[in-house]
Amino acid sequence: MKIFKNNLFSVAVAVLVVLGTSAVHAQGDKKSSAILDAMSNRYQKIKSFKATFTYTPKGEKPLKGEATVKGLKFRLKMAGQEIFNDGKLMATYIKETNEVNLQDFDPTSSGDLDPTRIYSAYKKGFKYAFLKEKKEGAKLLEVVELTSTNKNSQVDKVQIEVNKADKSINSWKIFQKNGQEVTYTVEQFQPDVTVADSYFAFNSKQYPGVEVVDLR
After folding, report:
1. Distance between CA atoms of residues 70 and 48, nearest Å
2. Is the pTM for the entire model greater than 0.90?
3. pLDDT tens digits, one per residue of 13-71
4. CB 69 within 8 A of CB 49
5. How far apart are the C-alpha atoms of 40 and 121, rounded to whole Å?
6. Could you tell me if 65 and 78 are in contact, meaning their C-beta atoms sit under 8 angstroms apart?
7. Which residue from 6, 143, 147, 154 lies 20 to 30 Å from 20 (Cα-Cα)?
8. How far apart are CA 196 and CA 179, in angstroms?
């Protein structure tokens, strides 16, 4: 039985980093705090979104992913697997084996990557600092580094690149304590998409012969 290893926004799942229920408040210089708060405020106003992205483990070729988020609900596609989360039940479908793993969803401890928290994860469990500005094509990017203050987290630090013009996220790079690194780059972002709640619930009828593994 395979278990999804990248399960947001760290996308249990995709697209920043959540460090559990740490009560340690983030600390940072004024410049980095202003950048992160402006970025967060921009996205907090969005009720739903759909994003396509690439994720590149260190030394490997880029892979494609897609996330759709609505409140606490999300659906994430990446690495030949798909996560359905209707806010109560999380179903991880593995295409290769035609298998789905079912788990209760706990919004307070949803794993390393959670797309519903991607824009506010920095507010707990991190200290952060402004690193630099850099040019990428026509874009001017502000780079902020977040360092984990949670000793139990597998994540060491995260570097976030924010577009200076509109405070949108361009990419983020996750450094794990075991030496692994992965970079997520936003390719396309659609705010306030119209999507039915049923889109986030796994429907076994759409996957003939699927093996259901109930882990609840």
Report:
1. 4
2. no
3. 334 333 222 233 355 678 988 888 888 888 878 888 898 999 898 999 998 989 898 88
4. yes
5. 9
6. yes
7. 143
8. 40
